[in-house]
From TrEMBL:
The lineage of its organism: Bacteria, Bacillati, Bacillota, Clostridia, Eubacteriales. HAMAP family: GatB. InterPro entries: Asn/Gln-tRNA_amidoTrfase_suB/E, Asn/Gln-tRNA_Trfase_suB/E_cat, Asn/Gln_amidotransferase, Asn/Gln_tRNA_amidoTrase-B-like, GatB, GatB_C_1, GatB_Yqey_C_2, Gln-tRNA_amidoTrfase_suB_CS. This is Aspartyl/glutamyl-tRNA(Asn/Gln) amidotransferase subunit B. GO terms for biological process: glutaminyl-tRNAGln biosynthesis via transamidation; translation. Residues 331-478 form the Asn/Gln amidotransferase domain. NCBIfam families: gatB, PRK05477.1-2, PRK05477.1-4. The gene is gatB. Belongs to the GatB/GatE family. GatB subfamily. It comes from Desulfitobacterium dichloroeliminans (strain LMG P-21439 / DCA1). It catalyses: L-glutamyl-tRNA(Gln) + L-glutamine + ATP + H2O = L-glutaminyl-tRNA(Gln) + L-glutamate + ADP + phosphate + H(+); L-aspartyl-tRNA(Asn) + L-glutamine + ATP + H2O = L-asparaginyl-tRNA(Asn) + L-glutamate + ADP + phosphate + 2 H(+).
Length: 481
């Protein structure tokens, strides 16, 4: 890799969050029976005519503004002609010549290095249908069926400049892009449902040169991690091909998640889509006032929110970046902070306990039984000394599993922290008697011995003793001896 560099451009298809399709009233709801959400318009039947969904234009404009794009005041739709079973009209309605948004950018940080990835364009287009393969993928199937429920669903395709240089950069770019689109409400960006899909154009060239190499397009990547892995594999594959004295073929390749490799799907040498303006569809003319109105409706975006958490609440930049990485997480944090005013402690519990359990059980935050209200109540119990921090973690796991209030769990399990001086004195006296060597070590100046004795007390009380009170009382009792 030292003699070659990767040149990567991403094409991200984002399903817009509308209730109906681009040119008809058919529902966009996910998961319905095949071919139950179709009509003559989205099936492309002869004589059918559609009407542009105004909400699509608003959401596409909002996406463009959030990505620092210029907005086209006069745009139109074009026909991109190609033949494939999932495209009933024989052409796709898109914006080839005049996109609604262009010349944008996205700033990302990779390994403490700031970089800007320029965005060529963001244009509106209709989704084709979906092929349902009999096997695990198209390359291993003996037949395919066509489901046209998705046909005509409105998309924004966001095309980056070929300025990405690694799979890691691609992953970070996609994570940032997803967060922005989620914050704006443009899309639900559910990759598992196809609301966000990414194709990667990958090529290599000798370091120090500027001429672009022959590219391949990778498809079928269903996670950001898959995008990263597919790009890393493809770069290595292309380097090996060139070093063997062979030429890279311009083609579409599919990502096989199980094997961890890309596989050739079809040749894509000089595709000619014979694009031309769709004269049957209305042009889109946007006034500066309308664009400003959409701009004014933009919410606080991830970068601004991250900056606010650092400046207003003193969170470390890393904590703020994690908290603002998704809208759900940021809103969970804010809702908890409204009830328990300790931003750093809240972020510690979200990043430590909450995200750990979500990842371990492969759950979304919306599926968690721990609510901001319950987390705030738990932290209040710890702060008051009702339970220890260690017991708090046990309570949190039970809250996560059972969805009960923290006070209820503490009462049912008998987990109230032991702070009574008389009760603690009895326990400490017993521990001191059982550990004369540690007592002698502490009294001879070995400070670490007190930690061992505190640990023995916590073990004897199953973590319910107040560690602060234990430490102070032990020191007092041992100093008197």
């Amino acid at each position: 890799m030292s003699t070659y560099e990767a040149v990567i451009g991403l094409e991200v298809h984002v399903e817009l969050k509308t209730q109906s399709k681009l040119f008809c009233g058919c529902s966009t709801e996910f998961g319905k029976e095949p071919n139950t959400q179709v009509c003559p318009v989205c099936l492309g039947l002869p004589g059918s005519a559609g009407v542009l969904n105004k909400k699509v234009v608003e959401l596409a404009t909002k996406a463009g503004l959030a990505l620092n794009c210029e907005i086209g005041t006069h745009t139109w739709f074009d026909r991109k002609n190609y033949y494939y079973p999932d495209l009933p009209k024989g052409y796709q309605v898109s914006q080839v010549f005049r996109p609604i948004a262009y010349k944008g950018y996205l700033d990302i940080e990779v390994e403490d290095q700031q970089m800007r990835i320029n965005i060529t364009r963001a244009h509106i287009e209709e989704d084709p249908g979906k092929l349902v393969h009999s096997g695990a993928s198209i390359t291993t199937s003996h037949s395919s069926s066509a489901d046209y429920n998705r046909s005509g669903i409105p998309l924004v395709e966001i095309v980056s400049e070929p300025e990405i240089r690694s799979g890691e950069e691609a992953k970070v770019y996609l994570e940032k892009l997803k967060a922005i689109l989620e914050y704006t409400g443009v899309s639900d960006v559910k990759m598992e449902q196809g609301s966000l899909r990414c194709d990667a154009n990958v090529s290599i060239r000798p370091v120090g040169t500027t001429t672009l190499g022959t590219k391949t397009e990778i498809k079928n990547m269903n996670s950001f991690r898959a995008v990263q892995r597919a790009i890393e594999y493809e770069v290595e594959r292309q380097i090996a091909v060139v070093q063997d004295g062979e030429a890279i073929i311009q083609e579409t390749r599919g990502w096989d998640e199980n094997k961890g490799i890309t596989l050739s799907m079809r040749n894509k040498e000089n595709p000619d889509y014979r694009c031309f303006i769709d004269a049957e569809l209305t042009h889109i003319k946007l006034t500066p006032e309308w664009i400003e109105g959409v701009k004014a409706s933009l919410p606080e975006l991830p970068d601004a929110r991250q900056k606010r958490l650092v400046e207003e609440y003193g969170l470390p930049a890393y904590d703020a970046a994690v908290i603002t990485s998704s809208l759900d997480l940021a809103e969970f944090f804010d809702a908890t902070l409204d009830q328990f005013p300790d931003a750093k402690l809240i972020s510690n519990w979200i990043m430590g306990e909450l995200l750990r359990l979500l990842n371990a059980q492969n759950l979304e935050l919306s599926e968690a039984k721990v609510t901001p209200d319950r987390l705030a109540k738990l932290l209040a119990l710890i702060k008051k000394g009702t339970i220890s921090n260690k017991i708090g973690k046990e309570v949190f796991e039970l809250m996560f599993k059972e969805g009960k209030e923290p006070e209820q769990i503490v009462e049912e399990k008998g987990l109230v922290q032991i702070s009574d001086e008389g009760q603690l004195t009895e326990i400490l006296t017993e521990i001191i008697a059982k550990n004369p060597k540690s007592v002698e070590d502490f009294q001879s100046g070995k400070e670490q011995a007190i930690g061992f004795l505190v640990g023995q007390v916590m073990k004897a009380t199953k973590g319910q003793a107040n560690p602060g009170a234990v430490n102070g009382m032990l020191r007092e009792m041992l100093t008197k001896k």
